[in-house]
Structure prediction request, 357 residues.
Amino acid sequence: MAKIAVIPGDGVGPEVVSVAVRAIEAVARARSLAFELVHFDYGADRYLRDGVTLPPGQIEDFRDHYDAILFGAVGDARVPDNRHAREILLALRFQLDLYVNFRPVQLLDERFCPLKGKGPSDVDLVVFRENTEGLYADVGGIFKKGTPDEIAVNEDVNSRKGVERIIRAAFDWAVAHGKKRVCMSDKSNALRFAHDLWQRAFREIAADYPQIEPRHLYIDALAMKLLETPEAFDVVVTCNLFGDILTDLGAALCGGLGLAASANLNPKAPRCRGLFEPVHGSAPDNAGKGLANPLAAVLSAALLLDNLGHAAEGAILERAVRAAVAASVLTRDVGGDRSTAEVGDYVVAEVERLARG
Ligand SMILES: NC(=O)c1ccc[n+]([C@@H]2O[C@H](COP(=O)([O-])OP(=O)(O)OC[C@H]3O[C@@H](n4cnc5c(N)ncnc54)[C@H](O)[C@@H]3O)[C@@H](O)[C@H]2O)c1
Prediction:
């Protein structure tokens, strides 16, 4: 039996995750799949109540006894330094060594795209963002804080192992999914040491995949090209910071954060394959108002099912989302007038219908 940890988190997290959970339960029921979903209350409320972010041993428990984690979002103004978010989400990504941040940039309907004349066949790529190193490695310090001589440093950490494995993951995925092009993006003209490593690793690894056309673009050029010719890209691989920024741009090409799904993966993990979450944050401005779009969370649940070996069931969740889009049963962020619950009910009913058919 697959065991899934569910961490809804803060803000809109619980609202969107409850829809994703209902979608998973509906497809599991219809297809007689045995899933055990275990809910955890980690987030700002718990932290403010008893000081717990993740209790000792929890990460090891996830690593050894769970197959996946379904996650909402963390972030709450009552915790001004967002300490709990770092100690929950970044700790899970780093300590479970979830080195692949897999973020599809897939346009579901032409009307969501702000680019003139571009449709779903033009905007259909995936970004492989390095997820455990770079400027997010939390190495650095502040000296003479609060004085006019203050110096703040964040080190950009790039290991040969870390760079190689994310590039290889991008090529492997391209081959497995019949894609022809992998573009690596860096800023090696300015970051002469760290991104020289990316250049050398990319050239070496690309030679192992002669069927794939390798391409390199500096990140500033890629940001421009993605808007001009998104159809020129199948797979993009890049570092932690650039991937973070680029995928918000990608989300904007597809209708916004309410539709952007992601997976944090360790393809080599013996048991816990990854943490699956919408790209968006806790959206406190929308929380509790029925305004949150649950589709990114449902698409993240589809990635979860796919990665647990249930590709057909993952595809059912994705088709249910496409059905909601086709029927315009949508929240306001993507031009609809329905509530989170109404969109959720529609998607779950579609999942049930498709799973029976
Ligand atoms: N992975 C995460 O947990 C994560 C990611 C990003 C931000 N955060 C945290 O979330 C908090 C808010 O950050 P932010 O405002 O910069 O980013 P955000 O993604 O929460 O919101 C950005 C904008 O998108 C809208 N939005 C986001 N999700 C939506 C949804 N499902 N449906 C409709 N609209 C949606 C919001 O209303 C807001 O206007 C902060 O505390 C931040 O640190 C967490």
